[in-house]
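Assess this one:
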Amino acid sequence: MTTSVATRTSPAPEPRNGTRWGRAGMLATVAAAAVVGIATLVDQHVLALYLDIDSEASPASFNTTALVGQDVGFGMVPTSVNGTQKSVLRAGFASATLDGFCLSQTQSLGALGSFTLKVTAGNGTSATDISASNASFDLVNFTAADAGIVLSGQDQIGLATSDITTTKTGTSYDSNPLGGPETSYGKGWIGIDASKGSFTKLKGKLYSARVLGNISLPRLSIKAFSGTSGDASACDAATTAYQN
């Protein structure tokens, strides 16, 4: 099970929903490689972080206490997961701040049993402490509690995914940042465009998480656990919202 993290000096390719989380023989090797890869990027102040997670048999789970996004878009898009076409809800943010974050996925090592790779970040306070720009997530499902989901500013519902806007180049919005089919309206590839979105106690499952701009990850932790219970339990299984 390996994470795929790389810098980009040119636009990133279309998401393949793809960290190749292989069958590593030793959990320590897996965790160490991931930590070194991300720590090197952060230390070098790399501006483009490309993170792509492939669920293989099942999606990864996530959990955050709060997420506040600026220039937000949600649109249905087709995507390939291990060679199979699937429909996902792609959430895009020109910028986003989070209050803690947890991402986990369990993989099988055959006769050696299963292991869970868990990535967490956050300073443990009740305030947004993680920041990212040009971020997108391919969601399978998600829920929000308490205040739930609040969209504000200029909101448009039912737009074709290809017409939704998030990021800008200069003062102009980038064309089709969510990568929706160009002739999508009326064929199910529609979504929501909002100036701002706030999400409370957000958790769910996703196929892909990508950040192509600046990112801040306080108290970043990457650990591998044997099995699926205790510390290895899925991030979205928590009954309370996540703060590291």
Remarks:
- The CA atoms of residues 37 and 129 lie 22 Å apart.
